[in-house]
């Protein structure tokens, strides 16, 4: 059997789901919400971090159908910029503030912040990372 075909089958069986949100839809959904960072969340045993209390949001799946996605700590956000560079951070660490998208690259190093002017964004993708972490509270 062709090695390429085997790789393609493995990739399709084990790949992570990816969804998109247009920049316009993202701004509509997250532009006017109040972000509450006061609640710590446990993801593994006694490991806690601060995350925003986003419950559900609307995304588009690969078949161009709308879905309501529930927030979880394993969701990652991939932002493609107009210059084709990409930035990745945890979805529950992002906020849209004064036309700037702000997100954390790490749960354990809160100073690792990415700031992106919203006008520089051409594409937003949300991906289930496959990491086996869940909120405990």
UniProtKB/TrEMBL annotation:
PROSITE patterns: PROKAR_LIPOPROTEIN (PS51257). This is Lipoprotein. It comes from the Bacteria. It comes from Flavobacterium reichenbachii.
């Amino acid at each position: 059997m062709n090695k390429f075909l085997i790789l393609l089958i493995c990739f399709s069986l084990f790949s992570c789901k990816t969804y998109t949100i247009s920049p316009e839809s993202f701004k509509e959904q997250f532009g006017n919400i109040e972000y509450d960072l006061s609640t710590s969340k446990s993801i593994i045993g006694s490991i806690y971090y601060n995350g925003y209390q986003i419950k559900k949001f609307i995304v588009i799946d690969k078949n161009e159908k709308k879905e309501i996605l529930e927030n979880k700590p394993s969701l990652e956000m991939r932002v493609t910029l107009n210059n084709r560079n990409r930035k990745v951070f945890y979805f529950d660490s992002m906020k849209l503030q004064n036309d700037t998208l702000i997100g954390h690259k790490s749960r354990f190093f809160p100073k690792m912040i990415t700031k992106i002017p919203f006008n520089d964004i051409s594409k937003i993708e949300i991906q289930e990372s496959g990491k086996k972490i869940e909120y405990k509270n």
